[in-house]
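From the shared-data thread, chain only:
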Amino acid sequence: MLGKWKVSSSKHLQFEEWNKISNTKFKGSSYKIIDSDTTILETLELVVIENDIFYIPTVYDQNNALPIKFKLSKLENKYVLFENKEHDFPKKIEYILESRKKIKASVSNESFSIDFHLSKQKN
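Structure, as tokens:
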């Protein structure tokens, strides 16, 4: 996940970028570029809290710009699932490693799902 990823299923130029802060914390952001204007869509954290791993997005135009914790519920070879069953949308955030340079990400609840296709960019 480290590095810069282009979101190809977007209507505009959009990226997700991740950096390692420590062995227990990663920070990222999702942003779009329209013309020459860059807009941050959300900030992201992947962090160990006590003995659990959480994916914590903060979306600026949702939830009063407060972070929402999604707890790691499944980790397999090329698949990771974070869940927050109390949240309206999404309840699930999934990442599937399709290759070293391609990831499929999905956000969903019981009745709706949105897929994002990410491709690794050179730094």
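Residues 3-120 form a domain with the Lipocalin fold (CATH 2.40.128.20).
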